[in-house]
Design brief:
Largest sheet: 7 strands, antiparallel
Radius of gyration: 22 Å
Strand content: over 45%
Order of helices and strands: HHEEEEEEHEEEEEEHEE
Number of helices: 4
Number of strands: 14
Shape: globular
CATH architecture: Clam
Strand order of the largest sheet: 6-5-4-3-2-1-14
Helix content: 10-25%
Structural class: alpha+beta
């Protein structure tokens, strides 16, 4: 009996001392996508309103169509971005758009849809992921992951750089930051704090509090420290309403 108890104790000690598996960057990203809805994003129809504009996204295993619909002095404007490119319709009639405005409208439509379903998209072929280490924000621990893009497949904004803070316990993205070209010579920085989490038909959605530093020439990778010490300015709230998922 004593030998059995000794053997069991030894096994428990050995098991408890066994080191935890070290997660790779890919493991972490896969987990955060999974807890947010995973494969369900790939075959979904999602619609919502953002700042009085209607948005709709159809995704079917890589085939996509993103829309936004709003009214102005010309009538009902419907912008459509798909695998075939960008098209604009006014009162259901397709209209020609000059190249410079096509690029602008494409970025605008894609940006809203991209942020609405994060972290879905972080496994796209053009994405380059790098684990920077761990970070503490509001006394919680996070994996800090840098995301950049290959030029091929990375879109017009392939030079943008993102940082994601993924909660080490829940594997949810609680914060993100990014740098972008505000003009051909000026860099912009933003930091977002997720709030108002909710699940709709198994998919996770959040809204964001949108912050910026006083000095946008600072290093993107220190924005978490600035936020934690209250040194970022709240600019706006990014809130999507009337979300529907089919």
């Amino acid at each position: 009996m004593k030998r059995i108890l000794f053997s069991l104790t030894f096994i428990l000690i050995v098991t408890s001392c066994k080191p935890e598996k070290t997660l790779t960057t890919q493991d972490i990203v896969d987990k955060t996508i999974m807890v947010s809805g995973g494969e369900k994003f790939k075959t979904s129809t999602i619609s919502f309103d953002f700042r009085d504009i209607y948005y709709k996204a159809n995704r079917n295993n890589g085939v996509y169509q993103y829309e936004r619909v709003f009214n102005d002095s010309l009538g009902e404007i419907r912008d459509v971005l798909s695998n075939d490119g960008f098209k604009r319709y006014i009162d259901e009639t397709k209209v020609a758009v000059v190249d410079s405005m096509t690029a602008k409208y494409t970025r605008s439509v894609n940006s809203v849809h991209y942020f609405s379903v994060l972290p879905f998209g972080l496994n796209d072929a053009a994405v380059i992921k790098e684990l920077l280490g761990e970070s503490s924000i509001k006394e919680k621990l996070y994996y800090k992951i840098k995301v950049s893009f290959n030029q091929e497949g990375g879109g017009d904004d392939y030079e943008d750089i993102f940082v994601y803070w993924i909660n080490k316990e829940s594997f949810k993205v609680d914060y993100l930051a990014y740098s972008y070209m505000d003009s051909p010579t000026e860099l912009g920085l933003r930091f977002r704090e997720a709030f108002n989490e909710r699940y709709v038909n198994g998919l996770r959605f959040v809204d964001y509090k949108n912050y910026k530093p006083e000095d946008e020439t600072l290093d993107l990778f220190i924005l978490d420290s600035l936020f934690d010490s209250g040194k970022l300015k709240l600019l706006s709230r990014i809130e999507n309403v009337n979300i529907k998922v089919d």
